[in-house]
Structure formats: structure tokens, C-alpha cells
Amino acid sequence: MQTTKPTLLILAAGMGSRYGGNKQIDGFGPNNETILEYAIYDAIQAGFGKVVFIVRTEILDLVKDRFLQKINDQIQVEFVIQSLTSLVPAAYQNPERTKPYGTAHAVLCAKEVIQEPFAVINADDFYGKEAIDRLGAFLTQPQADNQHCMVGYALKNVLSKHGTVNRGVCDSNSKGELTGMTEREKIAREDKKVVSRMGEDVLEIDENTPVSMNCWGFQPSFFAETEKRWKVFLEESKDNIKAEFYIPTVVNDLIADRQASVKILEGGETWFGVTYPDDKETVEEALSALHQRGVYPVRLWEQEKVGM
């Protein structure tokens, strides 16, 4: 079924190897709410009409059991499988591959169930009401077919106290549009500096630099452009069983080829995520504080209909 409202696409097929479990369905809120329930709650209030879960086959039933009863009567719901054979012709399938194909492949897996503007988020990141509101406002306004967006977050607000992180560091122009992203690895705060360490190379990064947290807004044309690049990726990576196809790679390519523009939206005020087991307590405390401040009701789904 097609909706005239934007769709929220949730990437929930991750393996959670560093966390040690299915963090997509783990409870973090005061009433055992998962992180992604807050994004769904915010999306309903922001006027989204559908939510699409990208999941692995082995967790499909777990995800349905966890969420359908809570949200099925409040927003249209779809489930899509991302597997190692999804959209991969037989000639490119490699039985030795165990690593997922990445975020852009996950998005592409949803091309048959989304015909409207859509937002993309990770299941294990809390993006904040402000970010979802800004995405909803952008995606419900008339835009050019190649006008996309992302929510930018200051680097200092998206670090982990329990280990290094990888972040897409953004460059922008005077119009507030993204001009390119560079993936920086092993980022952490060291004394008063924020640095990225790659082998012997150490790069200091301004802590106020905007970064991508995989909080995107796309027009439907993004699917066709991604599919073109997916075919090229498969051919170029056929002998590399660890190669991944990422959203930032596609976006950088579109910008470089002048085939799209990406507006950096303000609104990345509150973010926290789960990468390591020790992150759980921090996230639980942060969510509890939001409930206590009245940002969310005592029980997230206590109303008959969200926003009513």
C-alpha cells in the first residue's frame, strides 16, 4: 500500500558483534522500551505514515513479536529481509561470504515497498525528537527529485565513553549543503582533544565538526541511483568477500557527479547509541531522564493513539 506521508526506514539487520546480542530488540527504557521505539513514537507524531523494518531472517519473528502489538494499529508496518543473496545475482553469490553487504544494500532491499519520500535511521541509535521532526518537515514539503537531506550532529556529542567509534565527518558549503563525507575510524577523546587513529597516523578533529549518524532523508529517486551503483559494486567487489556498500559512498558519488544535493538539517541535538555492552547503563540513564523531563510519557505507548 502506498502512502502520501513519508516513511521511516529502520536498519535493524545488524549483527551487534561488539555489543554481544540483538540490541535491536533489547530493552533500554524505563518500561523495557527498545531504542528504536522512541524513533517510531516520534515519527508518528511528526506525520510519518509507514515504518519499514530491514531485518535478517533469523530475527524476523523476534522483531515482529517485539513491535507489532505495540504499533500495528498506529502506523502502517512492513518487514523486509536483507540477506547475503538479496538482490545479488547468482553469478556474484559467494558461499564464503558471511559479512553483510552494508547500509546502502539494506536500503535498496526496501525498494519494492517504498514509493514515497523516506527517512533512514539505525535501529540502535537514539536520534532525538528534534531530528525526527526536522526530517518529517523536510520530507513532507515539495522537493526536487534529487534533493535529499541529512541531520548533522556535532562530533563532541556522538562519542562513546567506552571505546573508539567510526564517524562520517562532513564538509559543507555556504548553503548548508553537504559537499562530501570522509569516514574516520577509531575516534576518541584524548585529554582535551578528539583524535582519529589509523595505524601510526593521528588526526585531530574539531569537536564541533558535523558528522553523519546515518540519519537521512531521501526522495524515491535514491533507489534508482543506488541500484546503478550496486551493480557496479558487485562487479568490482566480486572477489572481495568483506566489501560493503555504504550509504555515504552512494551519497558522495551523487554529490561529486552533481546528480543530487543534500541539505544538512539542524536538529542533531540529542544522540546516544549502543556499541559496547558498557553503553547500556548510559543509555538507560539518558532515556529515564527524558521520561522524567516529560519529553516522553511515563509509558511510551500508554495513549490509545500516539499524539491523541
TrEMBL record:
Keywords carried by this UniProt record: Nucleotidyltransferase, Transferase
GO molecular function: nucleotidyltransferase activity
Signal peptide: none
Record flagged with keyword Transferase: yes
Claim: Transferase is one of the keywords in the record: yes
Residue ranges of domain Nucleotidyl transferase in the record: 10-184
Domain of life: Bacteria
InterPro entries documented for this protein: GlmU-like, NTP_transferase_dom, Nucleotide-diphossugar_trans
One Pfam match: NTP_transferase
Official protein name in the record: Nucleotidyltransferase
The species this protein was found in: Echinicola soli
